[in-house]
UniProtKB/TrEMBL annotation:
The lineage of its organism: Bacteria, Bacillati, Bacillota, Bacilli, Bacillales. (R)-pantoate binds at residues 59, 151. Keywords: ATP-binding, Cytoplasm, Ligase, Nucleotide-binding, Pantothenate biosynthesis. Its EC number is 6.3.2.1. It comes from Thermoflavimicrobium daqui. Catalyzes the condensation of pantoate with beta-alanine in an ATP-dependent reaction via a pantoyl-adenylate intermediate. The gene is panC. It is found in: Cytoplasm. Belongs to the pantothenate synthetase family. The reaction proceeds by a bi uni uni bi ping pong mechanism. The keyword Cytoplasm applies. This is Pantothenate synthetase. It is an enzyme of class 6 (ligase).
């Protein structure tokens, strides 16, 4: 595996491989099995696998955890190489943003709910940095995890609207054996917070079962059930619980068999966790 730190070096490195299928796995590092599952999928489908590790300041708000976000390049590089990454791109902030950024990629509508409503400006930072990475790497396929299903929907919309010649590959959530969705931020959780955080997957799995059984008639009933279930844990502070169409992320009143997402964001202490389930109709 070759590690590159500059845009020009990466572009020159990739030049000989332009006739092959290039896959990109964009990350902010502190890799876990969720990230590595994206690499595994990319390795199966592509000739060349590029991973980026860049903690992107544009997608963090003023009071968010940019400074304390976990970073460990030697650990990540070892995991990436073992998983089969060919080229690891690890730029500095100065390399990615050498001058103040006056141009951003703004995706409307799908960014205005869920995390987009809770974290103003977050998705403009995401789409801008992903757009830059797409231009730098010029991949054929790009791999994203569905733990942040809204991000997947936003990136798919950007790719469609701006005619990026890239296939966005959405990959399933990877969970711990007890159901907790893998996240780099899980390291922030105290033992008791982590224990109580299991209520997220428990509530969502129960909601998916209830939807499959036709237990509820409205999205409001689903949200009420999930909210009340999460509130059984005293450390849980709910940011949002929403049931929306997917991937368009439009409000739902009466439930139908259309594809939908039940998404949550919940604080345990200072740590904000997100999780979701996708429901594509009764089986």
């Amino acid at each position: 595996m070759k590690i590159t730190h500059t845009i020009e070096e990466l572009r020159q490195t990739l030049k000989p491989y332009r006739q092959q299928t290039v896959g990109l796995v964009p990350t902010m590092g502190y890799l876990h099995e969720g990230h590595l599952s994206l690499v595994k999928r990319a390795r199966q489908e592509c000739d060349i696998v590029v991973m980026s590790i860049f903690v992107n300041p544009l997608q963090f708000g003023p009071q968010e955890d940019l400074d304390r976000y976990p970073r460990d390049l030697p650990r990540d590089a070892a995991l990436a190489e073992k998983a089969g990454v060919d080229f690891l791109f690890h730029p500095t902030v100065e390399e990615m943003y050498p001058t103040p950024t006056h141009t951003q990629i703004i995706v409307s509508e799908v960014t205005e709910v869920l995390c987009g409503a809770s974290r103003p400006g977050h998705f403009a930072g995401v789409t801008t940095v992903v757009g830059k990475l797409f231009h730098i790497v010029m991949p054929d396929r790009a791999y994203f995890g569905l733990k942040d299903a809204q991000q997947v929907a936003v990136i798919e919309q950007m790719v469609q609207d701006l005619n990026f010649p890239i296939t966005v590959v959405a990959c399933d959530i990877v969970r711990e054996s007890d159901g907790l969705a893998l996240s780099s931020r899980n390291v922030y959780l105290s033992p008791e917070e982590r224990k109580q955080a299991l209520i997220l997957s428990q509530a969502l799995f129960a909601a998916k079962e209830g939807l499959g059984q036709g237990r509820w008639k409205t999205a409001q009933e689903v949200n009420h059930f999930v909210r009340k279930t999460i509130e059984t844990q005293p450390l849980a502070v709910i940011d949002y619980v929403e049931t929306l169409t997917y991937p368009t992320l439009q409000p739902i009143d009466q439930l139908t068999d259309q594809p939908m997402i039940v998404a949550v964001a919940v604080y345990f202490g200072r740590t904000r966790l997100i999780d979701n389930i996708l429901f594509v109709g009764r089986e």
